[in-house]
Structure formats: structure tokens, C-alpha cells
Design brief:
By secondary structure, the chain is α/β, with parallel strands linked by helices. The chain has a single domain, classed as NAD(P)-binding Rossmann-like Domain (Rossmann fold). Helices cover about 45% and strands about 15% of the residues. The protein has 8 helices and 7 strands; from the N terminus they run βαβαβαβαβαβαααβ. Helix 1 links the parallel strand 1 and strand 2. Helix 3 runs parallel beside helix 4. The protein is globular, with a radius of gyration of 18 Å. The two termini are about 30 Å apart. One of its GO terms (molecular function) is oxidoreductase activity.
């Protein structure tokens, strides 16, 4: 795979897919990476670990609540002040939301999920686009861009969960992420910004591991492989979407779900 240059900004980067993406990007050549997460202590640890394991790498830890537009603007501002640009952005901060059918769903819980999983992703993407519009390409290659963005959606942004998994607000948010990714991709492609969505299957993250064991076993059995993905499998897909190897992909919703949606 092509080596990556430039600076990266990753939300939800203290654990799960975001953390794996940070490591994967550094392993593929990125030497400046912003680790943004609501858990600032964990973000600091990830940044410290990356700098100690990868000589010459600069890792900036940032406290970021993606439901706060001012905090997002400040995090982006700090990243640009430190690295002077953002070439790669991964918007992976998210929550699973409540398990409730619509007839039983609490409105406050609905808003919380939508605020993080939809509004948070969109507001981060908006700020990233604004920065990328101000910068030039890293090189003159026709496969180069002023910036590349990956928005984390879900396989449940493409298909519905089964009836025994009532994650209504989460599913609504992820469908919407796919939707705004498509229109933004069309809007900013002529301006040199490439935007796609990643639609993972269920991933073995701390959030998923905290679910009741009977739900974990039931959900794993729904996948042809009989297991959830590991974060590194999603990180590899993110690196692909950010790299020149996917240079003709705009507005795609790349499904990496172990065959779940093919059933």
C-alpha cells in the first residue's frame, strides 16, 4: 500500500477503531497525528505511546466532545497550529445509543445518540472541510488531494438490524452519515477534497465488550465468520480509503462487515 504523508486528525482516537486507525496511519507513513477524544487522559496515553514507539512522530492529544461545536473548532485550530494542515481526517467518535423500539424510545436518549453519531460526525467533517479548502495538495499527482475524509457509519447505515436488536436511533444516525457523506463528496470533489464513509460490521471494542454476554453470543452468531471484527480490520480499510489506492472513490459507503449484509 502507498505510503502516506502529511498530518491526520482522528476523533474517538483513544480506543477502538479510532485508536487502531491512529496506529495504522503512523505505520503507513503519517508522522503528525492528532488524537482527539472525550477521554483526554486516554488520548494522552495513546499519543505518548505512539511517540515512544514511532521515532520522529508527533502525536497531539486533544480533549474533544464532538457534540460541542466550539470544542470541535478549537481542536481543529490547535491541530492546524501544530501541524499547519490536515491531510487526513477520520471521524470515528460515536456511541451505541439506547436499545429501544420506537414506541418505547425516550426522546432525550434519542437526541443524545443523534447528537454524537450524526451531528458530531457532521460538525467535525464541516470543520475539516473548511481547513482543507485553504490548503494546496501535497504534490502534483492527479491522484493527490487537498484533503481526504473518512466518516464512520455502520453496516446499519446500509441495512437494518434484525428485530431483536432495536437500536433505532443509532441506525437512523448512521443512515444519515452515509447520506451527508454522499452529497458532501459530490460538492467538494471538484475542489480537491475526497470524502467517503466506512460501514463496519460489529467490532470488538470496549463498548461492545461491555454488552451482556448473551447479546454478544447472539450477535456473533449472525455473522458468517461467527465472530466480530477486530479494530485493526477497520483500520486497514480506513488506511485504504485515505490512501491514493482509493483515489477514484468519492461518496462511497465501503461495507466491511464480514459478509453480514450479503446474507
Amino acid at each position: 500500500m502507498s505510503e502516506l504523508n502529511g498530518a491526520a486528525f482522528i476523533t474517538g482516537a483513544a480506543s477502538g477503531i479510532g485508536k487502531a486507525a491512529a496506529y495504522a496511519l503512523v505505520q503507513h507513513g503519517v508522522r503528525q497525528v492528532a488524537i482527539a477524544d472525550v477521554n483526554f487522559t486516554a488520548a494522552q496515553q495513546v499519543a505518548s505511546d505512539i511517540e515512544s514507539q514511532f521515532a520522529g512522530t508527533q502525536a497531539l492529544a486533544l480533549a474533544l466532545d464532538v457534540t460541542n461545536p466550539d470544542a470541535i473548532h478549537e481542536a481543529i485550530t490547535q491541530t492546524v497550529a501544530r501541524f499547519h494542515r490536515i491531510d487526513y481526517a477520520v471521524n470515528s467518535a460515536g456511541i451505541p445509543g439506547s436499545m429501544a423500539y420506537s414506541s418505547d424510545h425516550d426522546l432525550e436518549a434519542w437526541h443524545k445518540t443523534i447528537d454524537v453519531d450524526l451531528h458530531g460526525v457532521w460538525m467535525c467533517s464541516r470543520e475539516e472541510i473548511r481547513v482543507m479548502l485553504t490548503q494546496e495538495k501535497l504534490d502534483d499527482s492527479p491522484r493527490s488531494n487537498r484533503g481526504v475524509i473518512v466518516n464512520l457509519a455502520s453496516m446499519y447505515g446500509i441495512v437494518s438490524p434484525s428485530r431483536d436488536l432495536p437500536i433505532v436511533s443509532y441506525t437512523a444516525a448512521k443512515h444519515a452519515v452515509v447520506g451527508f457523506t454522499k452529497i458532501d463528496a459530490l460538492t467538494y470533489a471538484p475542489l480537491g477534497i475526497r470524502i467517503n464513509a466506512l460501514c463496519p460490521g460489529t467490532v470488538d471494542t470496549p463498548v461492545v465488550a461491555a454488552l451482556p454476554s448473551e447479546i454478544i453470543k447472539r450477535e456473533e452468531a449472525k455473522f458468517p465468520l461467527g465472530r466480530f471484527a477486530v479494530p485493526e480490520e477497520m483500520a486497514d480499510a480506513i488506511v485504504f480509503l485515505l490512501s491514493p489506492m482509493s483515489s477514484y472513490m468519492y461518496g462511497s459507503a465501503l461495507v466491511v462487515d464480514g459478509g453480514y449484509s450479503a446474507q
